[in-house]
Amino acid sequence: VLRNVGVAAGYTLLAWQSLHKGLGKLQVDTGALARDLDHAHEVLAEAIQTAMRRHGVENPYEQLKALTRGQAIT
């Protein structure tokens, strides 16, 4: 079993190298991100909850849910 540790380590190293190379090829389309956020404000709910918690607001999840459930956020 120990003789296979080198094989696993080699594949792990190869995977990390491939991941690093692939991530280096990515480019962020900030325009597309901005457009998506303009049409889907609900993705900011978690950040809003965090800010509410920081300011001592009780039950931020429940308050946001009551405010936004079943409605489009604009």
Main attributes?
single chain, 74 residues, mainly alpha
Please provide a written account of the structure.
It is a single chain. The chain is mainly α and 74 residues long. The chain has one domain (2-68). The protein has four helices and no strands. The protein has helices at residues 5-24, 30-39, 45-54, 60-68. It is elongated and about 60 Å long.
Question: How many domains would you count in the coordinates?
Answer: 1
- Give helix % range: 55-70%
How many alpha or pi helices?
Answer: 4
Return the string of H and E elements: HHHH
Distance between the termini: 59 Å
- SS strand fraction: under 5%
Category by helix and strand content: mainly alpha
C-alpha geometry: elongated
Number of strands: 0
Enumerate the spans where pLDDT stays under 50 for 5 or more consecutive residues. Answer: none
Q: What is the average per-residue confidence, as pLDDT, rounded to a whole number?
A: 91
Briefly characterize the structure.
The chain is mostly helical and 74 residues long. The protein contains four helices and no strands.
Task: Outline the secondary-structure elements.
Blueprint: H1 5-24, H2 30-39, H3 45-54, H4 60-68
